[in-house]
Design goal:
The chain has one domain. It is built from six helices and seven strands; from the N terminus they run E-E-H-H-H-E-E-E-H-H-H-E-E. The protein has a four-stranded antiparallel beta sheet. Strands 1-3-4 form a three-stranded mixed beta sheet, covered by helices on one side. It is elongated.
Length: 196
């Protein structure tokens, strides 16, 4: 993997890595038609996860104490770990991977245009949610005295809601044997057997 920090993203998809030409028979994932729509869907997923998981963390920690800043610290830590979240995606690339930021719009993402299997794409998408979300949550559920770990895991997990959209698309749209790649903002799949 060769990591490249690209700095602030201009907002122009043409500035992102592109496949040229696209592989024969490449099919774009059916995705929301704009970054705004994607953000709304991701926020809806985050809210749907926050309610039951937040209730579980509050219950397991013995209730909510408003004089305790553990929730605030958990949120702040999950924000601090936004860059490590992207590095956890990046390690699954074997070729060039590019980190872009646009903090004014709340954007921080990695992208690369190499082919990958459905399995590797799903692991790439879920890995930060597992490492920064599920593992800390499980440790907290085993040892509820680690409340900060519980809230950090909770907010880290729900911050991966956009990644869950990628997993859903891969599971529901990619046929067996297909490869996927990123082209600008968008994910595509194709069957290697269609290449002649």
């Amino acid at each position: 993997m060769r990591f490249h920090y690209q700095g602030r993203f201009s907002g122009d998809e043409a500035d992102l890595p592109q496949r040229d030409p696209l592989p024969a028979g490449a099919v774009a994932f059916r995705e929301p038609d704009s970054t705004t729509t994607t953000a709304l869907v991701a926020n809806g997923i985050a809210l749907a996860l926050l309610i039951p998981l937040g209730a579980l963390v509050i219950w397991r920690s013995g209730g909510m104490d408003f004089s305790d800043f553990t929730i605030t610290l958990g949120i702040l830590l999950s924000l601090v770990f936004a860059i490590p979240h992207e590095f956890l995606h990046a390690i699954w690339f074997r070729e060039d991977v590019y980190l872009y930021t646009n903090l004014r719009q709340g954007m921080l993402f990695v992208v690369g245009s190499e082919d990958m299997t459905k399995g590797r794409f799903i692991i790439l998408s879920l890995f930060p949610a597992i490492v920064l979300g599920i593992i800390p949550l499980v440790i907290f559920l085993i040892n509820p005295s680690l409340k900060l770990l519980g809230y950090f895991g909770l907010f880290s997990f729900i911050s991966a809601s956009g990644d869950f959209i990628n997993v859903f698309n891969a599971l529901t749209q990619m046929p067996a044997g297909a490869l996927t790649f990123l082209h600008g903002y968008h994910s595509y799949w194709y069957l290697p057997s269609a290449q002649a």
